[in-house]
Design goal:
The chain is α+β, with helices and mostly antiparallel strands. The protein contains 5 helices and 7 strands; from the N terminus they run E-H-E-E-E-H-H-E-H-H-E-E. Strands 2-3-4-5-1-6-7 form a 7-stranded antiparallel beta sheet.
Amino acid sequence: MSLDDRFEWRETYFILFPSGKRPSLKQVETAVQRLGAHLELGDREANEQGLLESLHVRSPEDHSALEIDYISGEEVSAQVAELTKQLRGETAERDKLARLKNCDARFEIMHFEEMDAFDPDEADEAFDPSALLAVLDALVDLTGGVGVDPQSGTLL
């Protein structure tokens, strides 16, 4: 399964985690498959050690798809530093902020809407974020990471 021009990007979420907790492609496949048979996996990529590089997840009943990509390096370190600075005074986020300090990798989860699968007048009713939220939670659990909504700057 590859994402074609029927899919339009809607939002991106991140899961920040220590690179030492990077899961294998097989672990991620298993975690996603536990969420239900309605989720279709495709375009799987792993590195030489079998660790996840990228994966597509499609949810036909939600008219959505996800592209999950692994990223590490300076970009992630800069993001962690910025989030820590922004949220420093937030007492409700202290344990998540403490976990952030050890994060040097992330999954970028891009959420896409399938555009021609339904009547455009009913777009708000057909597009459902359930798959995104379920996969996000599963990957946070798998990595021990911290979910981030970069649009609002909040930790999940």
